[in-house]
Amino acid sequence: MQQPAIQPNTQPASELMLRETASQTAGPYVHIGLALAAAGNPVRDEEVWNEMAKPDAEGEPIEIVGNVIDGNGDLVRDAFLEAWQADANGNYQTDYDLGKPFNSFGRTATTFDHGSEWSLTTIKPGAVKHPSGQLMAPHINLAVFARGVNIHLQTRLYFDDEVEANAQCPMLTRIESPTRRQTLIARREEVDGKVRYRFDIRLQGEGETVFFDF
């Protein structure tokens, strides 16, 4: 007598081959839940978004802008980024409150409008102490999510006008190649009298951004 077929959910998990979920889950679905404006949906009254610092926040007000670029040199128009940075005194603010002048955490996204740029309104962070006791150069930590990127990528943004601090940073100097190190440096601009830094993230190919395995 032929035995009935065993249903997949009756087999031990160790005997099953678990397939990846669609890479699309790292793309537009993220925007629907976490980047409502970028997805074309109505925004909530309280939203974690790209204004990390208000005008009365302590420190130098700056704007960060950039593109996300794939291995073919094309713009990734539906990437999602999360930012984490210290305040002007080099301290991370762990209690998020939209009523505060500054929060250490923010989110942003590229879109199909405005040249597909992502942006952050924040303040220039202070130097943070490394576990070794050395000071790390001012930086912003960035996590990048996108279609086809099943595990988010982690990188850092440093500032080109912090030459001395960058040269002594215990994290930045671990990158042996000076050319590769430059992929983490944001370029200072002045637009309408305001300070802005440009930082493009290249996911693959020539000039690929350095990513960290934290």
From TrEMBL:
Residues 42-205 form the Intradiol ring-cleavage dioxygenases domain. It comes from the Bacteria. It is an enzyme of class 1 (oxidoreductase). GO terms for molecular function: protocatechuate 3,4-dioxygenase activity. The keyword Hydrolase does not apply. Keywords: Dioxygenase, Oxidoreductase. Transmembrane segments: none annotated. The keyword Mitochondrion does not apply. Its EC number is 1.13.11.3. Pfam families: Dioxygenase_C (PF00775). Belongs to the intradiol ring-cleavage dioxygenase family. NCBIfam families: protocat_alph (TIGR02423). PANTHER family: DIOXYGENASE, PUTATIVE (AFU_ORTHOLOGUE AFUA_2G02910)-RELATED, PROTOCATECHUATE 3,4-DIOXYGENASE ALPHA CHAIN. This is Protocatechuate 3,4-dioxygenase subunit alpha. It comes from Vreelandella janggokensis.
